[in-house]
Amino acid sequence: MKKRLLNILIVFLVAGLLPGVAFATSFETLPTSNFANITSKDGLIWVTRNTGVVNYYWNGSNWIAGETMFPSGSRIPSDGIRDTFIDDQARLWFSGGRSYSNKEHVTGYIPMTSQGKNVNYYGYQYFTRAKNGTIWTYGFPDGDNYRYPTVAYFTGEDFVNLPVNAPFSLSQSCLTVDHNGRPWISGSGQGDYNKVAYWNGSSWVRCDPPLPGACTVRALATASDGSIVAFGIYGTSQSGWAVYKNGVWTLKESSTNSTAALPVAYDYNIESGPDGKIWARAYGAGNGGRLTYYENETWKKTIPAPFGIVDFTVDNSGIVWAIGNSNKVAAFIEGTWYTDTDSFSAKLIEAAKKSADAAKVSADAAAANTGAAVTAAQGAKASADTAASRAQTAVNQTVDAGTSAASWAHQSYDKANQASLDATYIRNTQLPSLETKLNNLQVSVTNIQNSDTMPPTVEIQTVSGARATSGSSIQAIVTVTDNRPGPYTYSINGGSYSTLPDDGRITLPVYSSGNNSITVSVQDAAGNVGSKTIVIRKF
């Protein structure tokens, strides 16, 4: 399976500075304080403060303040950004509180280099990404906060509300989507605490977990195997978590006198990585700098981060980014936290090589499986040839026996003659047909082995992690995943093809000021071509 690697552009959303102002610093140190949110997609990272909508992005060596303007008359969050996500156009969508007491949440988006836009003055509160990439949310877009909230999904430009409101109150991480695309929600209301329901296409269906006592299911998540995980708590006296799999809830841990059975900090975000692994903040005193993840039906904790974690996100390359209460940022990759650009870039190169090696192993295994099929066909044909030879021998012996038995009784002659006819039928009719089929099988398998119509998959990342430069070129690493091993050739922006180095390192031209779209095409030995475009900004 292909591993997505990293196109590392760190873009941060905070408050306080004008667009275009740079700060020479390591990515570890943020240019201001009071960060509350972090989100990422395709290596693009945004961070928000607990008030305001001013933004920054990391260009590989400096923090750059981004666009903050909205059209005149727009509503912008005055009570802080509640949640964010990045769409396919690299726009930051936000839910921002304006009046928390009446649940008014402004929803809109902010592009990197143009004015932001409101799409709803009441809006949505919490966003979660399904396995297929669709964003789901809930809130009060019609402003009617006296009834239960609306659940909706994102179309690319706006949100579509389900026709039936949720059947109870929702809060924070109480929304997830299973592998069948069904949203699941949890919450409480009207004295009924332990509530879970899923959408069946026309209505909400209750499916409550067996948590203890008066627990409220405060968070839901979807595991890599498609099972639903529910987390419940009641004050400081009851807690537990359960898993819904194959139509049945199973209580995993519970307590009727403490919160010790809760593995995650339920009142913060819960996210899934590209491999389906569930990530959350670890619950309990002393775990402010640790994350926990769900793998093989077991919760495991990371090593402590260099700071107390305020928020985190998992990008679609599998890197965990975290912001801290000391105005710091760090990246967690393969068991280690990184806070400086050099060691982080070195780790990315190592990860790229590891992914390429894994792809080669997969390609070799696929080729070996194809070779085994050819060997099996050849063995079957050899067995058929042996069977034909032995049948021919049997025919000859039968005929000879029939000829030498001329003086036998008529009955004996008839039996010998029938045996001759049967053997002749086997030799002349059945065996040629079998041999033809086996020959056809061998030809088909050989054709499968020799044919290749699958284009390679191409990923590009800059060596430094930057997506901006003041020079006329930038170093990059090209990672190729294909069903056959190389060699490969590459072309830049439709130019002539050159041999792709073993380490994938190439030089990308950056000629024009502003954004440069650079397309790298890779051709495999069979002539199939795969392409990937990266945008590099020139100052």
Sequence stretches where pLDDT stays below 50 over 5 or more residues: 1-24, 397-416
Structural class: alpha+beta
Distance between the termini: 38 Å
Strand order, largest beta sheet: 32-38-37-34-35
* Strand-residue proportion: 35-45%
Largest sheet: 5 strands, mixed
Query: Helical region count?
Result: 2
Mean residue pLDDT = 76
Q: Report the C-alpha radius of gyration, rounded.
A: 32 Å
Count all strands and give the number: 38
Shape descriptor: globular
Could you estimate the helical fraction of the residues in percent? 10-25%
How is this structure best described in words?
Among the domains are: 361-450; 457-538, Immunoglobulins (Immunoglobulin-like), CATH 2.60.40.10. It contains 2 helices and 38 strands. With 539 residues, it is of the alpha+beta class. Residues 1-24 and 397-416 have low confidence and may be disordered. The protein has helices at residues 341-404, 410-450, and strands at 9-10, 22-24, 35-41, 44-49, 56-58, 62-65, 81-86, 92-99, 104-110, 117-120, 124-129, 135-139, 150-154, 159-161, 175-177, 183-189, 192-199, 204-206, 216-222, 228-234, 238-245, 248-255, 270-272, 278-281, 291-295, 298-301, 309-314, 320-324, 329-333, 336-338, 457-462, 468-469, 473-481, 489-492, 498-499, 505-509, 514-523, 529-538. A 5-stranded mixed β-sheet has the order 32-38-37-34-35, with no helix packed on it. Helix 1 runs antiparallel to helix 2.
